[in-house]
Amino acid sequence: MSFKTILVHLDHSDRSAARAALAARWARAHESHLVGLVPTGLVDGVIPADAIATGMTDFIAESADYLRRRAEAISREFRQSIVATGSLSYEVRLVDGATIDAVVQHGRASDLVVLGQDDTSNAMDIPLHGLAGHVLMEVGQPVLIVPSAGQFESVPRNAVVAWNGSREAAVALHAALPALRRASRVTLASFRRPKEEEDDDRQPSAADMLRFLSRHGIQATFERNVTGIDIADALLSRVAELGADLLVMGGYGHSRLRELILGGVTRQILAQMTVPVLTAH
Hints:
The chain has 9 helices and 12 strands. With 281 residues, the protein is an alpha/beta fold.
């Protein structure tokens, strides 16, 4: 498996440029084709209160023109950033449909979808919220979620994989193999509470997992952690202690129509993440 096509969602938020730059670095590292997806917002876009001058006789037409011009500006900035940082196979797609539907549709023809963490920095012009969670449950491809704060100037070299032997953890681990091959340090970290028994009969042994990764050219270590605090807090704390720059974890939950229920650990990680998270469901 490799990331031959990487899709990045672009919007008008403050973090869009940082997300695009990270996606471009991954695309160059993996020799991928990069797709910049720009939903125009004609279906679900938000228009700042002062964007349309008062007294306009055709507010709908003026609003559509504003959203189209904003999308074209985002596309232009993306193209300029690619040209300024070196050669790369890429394209830009402007789409008018609902953002979630557009990302899912185009994401299914990609190997990796790059999205941003929910961000409330633009208080006057709120971007779509819940995008990462919805796409994760529906797209059927790995999703790389970029935090709303912090600088990530290189492809990951120190990865932590949250491992509990579950189907979701295995799916995420397999999806992350191309990224893990490029890392110089990979740690599989399991967590349980003090009174919980280890369920070794229902999951591969640590030795099996390390041999599996070794056959993929990945030298990893395995650690078992017993924690009395919240699992998500313990995981994020361990990521910080190890100086990791990527977290790989399974996406837990299910979606039915537009009602999304994420597992507690997944929801908390997506809210408090400090490094990019590569996940799959």
